[in-house]
Amino acid sequence: MKSDEGPTLVIQTAFLGDVILATGLLHALAEQYGPVDVVTTAAAKPLVETHPAVRRVVAYDKHGRDRGMEGFFRVVRALQDAKYHRAFLPHRSLRSALLARLARIPERVGFAGGPGSWSYTRRVPWPVAGHDAERQLALADGLTEERADGQVARVSLGITGEDRSIADRWLSDRGIADGFVALAPGSIWGTKRWAGYAELVTRIEGPVVVIGGPEDAALAEQVVAAAPDRAHSAAGVLSLRASGAVLERARALVTNDSAPLHLAGAVGTRVVALFGPTVPSFGFGPRGADDRVVEVSDLPCRPCSRHGPQVCPLGHHRCMTEISVEQVAKALTVDAEHV
């Protein structure tokens, strides 16, 4: 960062998975300008507050403390006081764009075509193809889609020694050694949830750890009940970073298209991802060489939306009900082919 310039800001207030994928952009920007500040949701703050590319995190609790116009302008004033020189906006939302504009940040860089793109001082063409982690790198230095091809995003978490100690104690207290299988049966979108986890856990040899947030605790207990001697629930018990530290020690994670997919990817754990109403070509699939996607690929109704609705629009939910336990169990083997 030049001595006569103010700090750099990234505004990313989307879902947890989007925030994890944005860490590749944070790395790239920190190399260019030094550690950056980040505006994100209160829920996502723990994901980035210890990241080596981050200087400071501003929590925008848009559904809680900062709800409504009063909260919005409270965040605007905090950003004005920080005197940022530039802001990068990977989340194509009008609210994020207005935060940067009203905070009087001189340089505002975001993707063209979004509802707030009129307010940017530089608009970068949205790379249609590729993974979202790599697409976001186009913001770092204005790469065109063609020039950005081949760039690899360094998606990672700032897991601390304390996080790993918490994970170690949790696993040790239950007699769980490295190499277990982790399951993440939850999702905030109803149609993304696969109903086969309880049966799957009976097909897995050795210990199983079920992860998720507090909202997933009841679902996790249903899975644990199918193999109470081997399965253990950490849902709602461990923090996001401690859950990441647990995943570091797993041999694989089976997950729906949800935040744990990206949490596992960020710590280098093999992923078996189940896709139903959405598709990996949206740019949010697993990225590892040994990762696997399980999906019903010949349904004309797929994909039905960008995120996956709460209820199947056609009433049959075949995109998830036709994924068999046998398919998922096979994908867990290291040499499994794409199914």
Task: Describe the protein.
The protein starts with 7 loop residues before the first strand and ends in an 8-residue tail after the last helix. It contains 15 helices and twelve strands. The protein has 339 residues and is of the alpha/beta class. Helix 10 (197-203) packs parallel to helix 11. The protein has two domains: 8-148, Rossmann fold; 161-331, Glycogen Phosphorylase B (Rossmann fold, 3-Layer(aba) Sandwich), CATH 3.40.50.2000.
Give the SSE string: EHHEHEHEHEEHHHHEHEHEHEHEEHH
Shape: globular
User: What is the total number of structural domains?
Assistant: 2
> What is the typical, i.e. mean, pLDDT?
92
| Model regions low in confidence, pLDDT < 50 over at least 5 residues | 143-148
Query: What structural class do helix, strand and pairing data support?
Result: alpha/beta
The Cα radius of gyration reads 20 Å
Q: What is the helix fraction of residues, given as a range?
A: 25-40%
Total strand count, please? 12
Name the beta content range: 15-25%
The main sheet comes to: 6 strands, parallel
**Class of the largest domain, according to the CATH hierarchy?**
Alpha Beta
Compose a concise summary of this entry.
The protein is 34% helix and 16% strand. Helix 9 packs across helix 12, helix 10 runs parallel beside helix 11 (217-225) and helix 12 (240-248) packs across helix 13 (259-267). By secondary structure, it is an alpha/beta fold.
